[in-house]
Amino acid sequence: MFEWIPAYQRFLLDVTLIDIILVISLLILFQCGLFSMATAGFAAIGGYTSALLVTDADWPVPLGILAAVFVGATLAVSFGLPVLRLRGIYLALGSLALAQVIVIGIANVGFTNGVFGISGIPTEVTTGWLVAIVAVILLVMELIHRSHFGRAMKAIRLDEHTAAGLGINVFAYRMATFGIGGAMAAMAGALEAHRTAVISPDQYDFGLLVVLLTYMFVGGVEHWLGPVLATIGFRILNENLEFAGTDWENFYYGSILVVVMLLAPDGLTSRRFTQRLARIFRRRPDLAT
Amino acid sequence: MTVPTELLQCEGVGRRFGSVTAVDDVTLGVRSGEVLGLIGPNGAGKTTLVNLMSAYLSPTSGEIKFAGESIAGCKPHELARRGIARTYQNVCLFEQSTVLDNVLTGRHLGFQGGLWQLGRKRHREEARERQLAVELIELLGLAEHMNEDVSAMSYGLRRRVEIARALAIEPQLLLLDEPTAGMTRTESDEVGRLIGELRAGGMTVLLIDHNVRLVSETCDRVAVLDWGRVIAIDEPAEVWADERVREAYLGTGESG
Amino acid sequence: MQQTINGLASGSIYALLGLGVTLIWGVLHVLTFTHAQVLTWGAFGSLIAINRGYPVPVAILVGMAVAAGLSVLIDSTVLEMLRRRGASEYAFVVATIGLAFMLESILRNRTRARVEPYSRDGFPRGPIELLGQNVPKLQLAVLATSLIAMAGLAIWLNHTRAGRGMKAVAYSPETATLLGINPRFIYAVAYTVSGMLAALAGVFVAVSTASVSYSSGDRLLLTAFAVIILGGMGSVPGAVVGGLILGVIEVYATVHVSSKFSEVVAYLVILVVLLVRPSGLFGAKEATRV
């Protein structure tokens, strides 16, 4: 279906689509007021689950990806159950530790082939698959956004105690989104494994999280469209910037994060920020007179 | 003479924070359909009692019953579902959101449709709930502020938004924690009128307020809390005449 | 015995790190993801001084000055702006993650990602006989210096004006202001002390491995978090005990399980403590939601 696109552009499209799934997995948690840093860990779990089942146990690829989704969701829920009852900062720390344990664990046990990773994974995932999956995910995000579920999530993010006073089951919402987020990250990891044919533990490092955080916060946390556009925008930018892929890349992402946190902690598309901008621009004519 | 049914009952309720006893052996009933005032000097434990009644805190002793059933182990959202709504002393609105968004969030329990419910059915449900929210906003006299950001609104208006949002869950019992604090006299008179209307519609209200005039005019009975204990509970005129009440208030400088 | 001393020596380095992080959490309620970078910059500061021929104590002081300066700079610019805006908890986390990435990137480029040798000249060398065991003098020196630094910190916190001011600010910046304490000054002091402790830890890490690189601190960030989670966030004795326990556990894990396993000990400690006792060994019960 997408064979008419030149190979390199198709590669860029595939990478961007998988990034979009990862960003959305982070975003859906954040929309519920959860700041989790385990995305890379869940992606690793997903990638390895499917890669191992398909290469070692000869499962068909779609089944491997489904298994990855299941494992991701199960792990997320069993981790979330105790941790989501704690203050937010503990989730941040715990999720970071969880991601590290997963990645270091994968690098050090035998059946994952350690730091060398797995190669020769069947690559059945096509651009068509990815487009379809992303379309479904974004459709669901839009349905959530327009329904009372989205309103409840926003209420939880803004003030969880008040939300509870209105009959919103904060814990259930958070568990559900945590499970969905874990499942989505794991699915992205599995899709990535079946796209590149090669996975190794080092691709799930802290840098991945920083990049995803940048996409999400630049795009804004209110609506899925912002982070999606930010992901696409950054991909195009990276293709045209000389320092992309060099040592300065981390500096670039780091400084963007700092600047966004200072200017618009809810993202550049947030209401608070756009209102501030509007005020600044409205003030201009006064200065002229 | 029939004994009025009590919608909410506190039986020997106590709450301690470490060595401090904020609420001490409170036995108190809110009768169905009445407006009960709860007054007392600052630090008497009024807000703690409301937090206990709405399950934000659990009592260290005693029991609270709502509609005859214990609320022990109940979470705030479950209690909201059972019919208790509240406002907060320090006004807890969803900031950077409009008045309509805030009130519509209060309608959460009114929505039945699942995520996959599409098309006209979804539209109809959203429209119905929106209509209910708009009516509440009009009831509170906020129609012209409907789409304003609550963060930019005055204190009195914000309090009214909060009351509208609490009413949105269609409660049986409404807990108002100092709803007129920071309001002008006209504004608080309006709140008094509103409480009267709600009462006429069959709502049960617990009203915490420092405004003695408002409490006298709107409440059927008044309970006085001092040092975590109920020292009097009776009709307003009787309560003001009570020696212990005068003593509790003496020198605190509190008046309407 | 030998293992325990090994463990205590590395544990005391962890404790120094944990103290810096717990101090900032206690006073400002901010979790600084820049802490590992502050350590690395401090270590590089001392390396430059050593390479220029300064004696070791002076070099350590130079490292401390670099780290403290960097910490205060971060606090008085980015974090101060966030505070003024009343930013949420996550904004501080994300901003300090961003800063950490910037700092690491700068070092990586300046050093061309090389691992620099760190001279042990001037540091205590060779073994010493203790209780029938041969213990490296360096480890004893690390342990002793760390313990002295920690004791000094404890005395300073409890018995000086600035230390008590810090407690007042931690309790409530508004009240402290009314008492005539300037919170911004206290924040700067907290970051200075935190940076100095990090630099000391950085020097010890560098001299123990005889090398330093832009990524020296990487693994230690989560180790520091594990220390304060174990000890209880914001608790000073908790950070000391937590650090020492973690060091000993790591050494035993290396010896009795495998060196690979010891890599994840810190992370497992975070997870287990969160599951079993989120407030840590010495923490107040602030961990759970209302």
Structure write-up:
The complex is a heterotrimer of chains A (289), B (256) and C (290). Chain A has 289 residues and is an all-alpha fold. Chain A has two domains: 1-204, no CATH class; 205-289, no CATH class. Chain A is built from twelve helices and no strands. Chain A is globular and about 60 Å long. The model of chain B has no long low-confidence stretch (mean pLDDT 88). Chain B has a domain at 1-74 and 174-179 and 206-256: Rossmann fold (3-Layer(aba) Sandwich), CATH 3.40.50. In chain B, the strands form two sheets. Chain B has a six-stranded mixed β-sheet, with helices on both faces. A four-stranded antiparallel β-sheet of chain B has the order 2-1-4-5, covered by helices on one side. The model of chain C has no long low-confidence stretch (mean pLDDT 88). Chain C is globular, with a radius of gyration of 19 Å. Chain C has a domain at 10-16 and 26-214. Chain C is mainly alpha-helical. Chain C has eleven helices and four strands. The chains are: A mainly alpha (289), B alpha/beta (256), C mainly alpha (290). Chains in contact: A-B, A-C. At the A-C interface, helix 4, helix 9 and helix 11 of A face helix 3, helix 4, helix 9 and helix 11 of C.
The largest interface is: A-C, 39 and 47 residues
Unreliable segments of 5+ consecutive residues of chain A: none
What does the average pLDDT of chain C come to? 88
* Number of helical regions of chain A: 12
Helical content of chain A, roughly?
A: over 70%
Spell out the helices and strands of chain A N to C.
HHHHHHHHHHHH
What oligomeric arrangement do these chains adopt?
heterotrimer
Strand proportion of chain C, as a percent range, falls in: under 5%
Number of domains of chain A: 2
What is the compact description of this entry?
The complex is a heterotrimer of chains A (about 290), B (about 260) and C (about 290). By secondary structure, chain B is an alpha/beta fold.
